[in-house]
Design goal:
By secondary structure, the protein is of the alpha+beta class. The longest helix is centred in the first third of the chain and has 51 residues. It contains 22 helices and 16 strands. A hairpin with a 5-residue loop joins strand 12 and strand 13.
Amino acid sequence: MSRVSVTGADRVLEDVIETIHELRLVDVTDYDGAWEGFDPGNPIAGADEAAERLVTVRSLQSLLDVDPEREGRMGSVDVGDRLESVREEANALDDRREEYREERRSVDERIGAMGPLRALGIDLDLLSGYENLETRVGEGEPDSVRAALDAADDVARHELFVEGDAIAVFAEPAAGEEGVLEDVLVGAEFAAIDVPEGDAAPAEYVSELEARRDELDREIADVEGELDALREEHADFLLAAEEQLAIEVEKREAPLSFATTENAFIAEGWIPTERFVDLAEALGDSVGEHCEVEELERADYDSDGRLVNREQTDADEGGRGEPETAADGGVKVETDGGSTEADRPMSGSEPPVVQENPDPVRPFEMLVNLIDRPKYSELDPSVVLFLTFPAFFGFMIGDLGYGLLYTAIGGLVYTRFESDGIRSLGAIGLWAGGFTMLFGILYGEIFGLHLITDYVWGGHPPIEKGLSPAGVEWAQLWLVVSLLVGLLHMTVGYLLGFVEEFMEDGLRTAVLESGSWLIRMLGIWIWIFSESAAGSKPDFLFTVFNGEPFALGFSGFSATVGIVGLVGGFLLGVVLFIISEVGHFGVLPGIVSGALESLQVLVNVLSYTRLAAVLLAKAGMAFVVNLLFFGAYREGPAGAQEFHFLLDHGPDYVGGLGSGAELMFPGLIHMGIGGVIGGIVVFLFGHVVVLALGITSAGLQAIRLEYVEFLNKFYEGGGDRYNPFGHEREHTAEN
């Protein structure tokens, strides 16, 4: 990427903006106001009017429910008169619709309030209009209302008509009293309702209201039909107008990012280096010598795409003064051999970042960007997450049935949603589901059942999970494999950190920082996997690759190699790290900090045993669900028993197998019709729970290993996305 400067006279400002906008190459840097004598520019005349029209267009799109993905392209549109006509018509229809909706809400409320009146069945004219009686209608507790009326001295007599909770109260005030009923009922359990005027029966009145509601529904439907017709007539226009106005606003507000004087301007930004000539030629064709284009800085990459050099070019070495208009109307820039305020970047910005990964890797950019976008000088770790995250997930779940469901869910999310972020989650789900199926076939399991083991692998799958006592060596193997995976994963992270520190700060910093961590980690784990002090270490560290389940001939490093790893690796790394910490914090704090943090290389690798732990936990959950549904028995000598589900036999089958077999659970499916129904519920619900917990446990644990144990070793982030000034047209053609 190259940092470029465009300097021009004020009178060619709009032509320069138009040219840069059409190219869509320059990621414009916002001027931060730090240069003496330069001010941020002002919007070009008409920006406010265009912005107001843009707001109007977008509100009309919302009102008419215009699909932004609608296909269609128009040329340049005349926004003014047509927009005003559409706005007036749409707003008038919307106002009518809102009036009808408001009246309909009122009718619904009145119908709802007629419930007690309909229950009582008393004509409306009989519920009010008396000279000597006071009436109230509502809902409440009849006994509470009677008690309140009986206790009132200012009520001569009363009568209640009750139907369920509906109550009609008729009361005659005592001589000389009036308006007594409202006060009397305050303390009773009674909620009054308004009685509408009329002489019809409540049912007839409600029928009239319902007829009016139906009429309003038809009116609303007619208005919405007119709005639909209006949308179909003007949808393409509104989309084109929105795009055209958005482009116009973008262009007219562009000077806000420029540094300006009374007669000239300076714009800066980043552009792919190989396209600099295109920018210069386009501006030359557009405004000739009335602007000057310079390459101020170039950031170079090596063959691996890493930043290896960032330096000023010759154009920026002479110093740049205030731009002046030349006698021929062009632009000249004074140079005095020194430096000026304008030599500094407008905002000290890093080059923007373009993440260019192969298509299968791109969804994993989302996982990286959840932390932050890579800086221009950093390696994009998306490819490493692509290689490891689905494998971690698939290893932990390892089941063909669950893998098929994860793949289906991922495919559904990927195809049904338009958001790039959600589609990326769907694509990640596809990869995770694929690896889950792969490991499921290797484990020989489908929904926790060993059907693939029996019918594909002849009873002996390539690998096992190690859930039964007979397969405990497999469980021990996965613990060791988890440690080895952690060592490999973290080694890659430390090496990447070493390279970055070497490129930025030199060999000494790289050795004292990432180098010391890597040496410590490898040193202590070489000692752990050595015969030094072997009696204090688990035996399976030395047997899983020298017997069961794999006879690879590795029974641990020799005691000598272990001592060399501990002294020449771990202790040397501790010393190097303490030197680094002393340089940061001083002697005593540095020594304490370095000594205490050194043991993290042990803890960090142990963290990867969660791979084996989740593997066994999920296998155990699926086993329990199948145990409850099918039933199971154990068979074999103590400490080496195997588990078998009762898929083809009933519980009685176990009794004929001899004393070496023991029934674990008979299975709900063998307990009659009630057991079958309950078993189906348990089976379906249980596997749904395992499926969901697979996402929340295996998924989150894999994410944690990536973020905390891996990316934390070298990745900082903080880059800005390459966002060139311009607009990709979808609904309008170029002028």
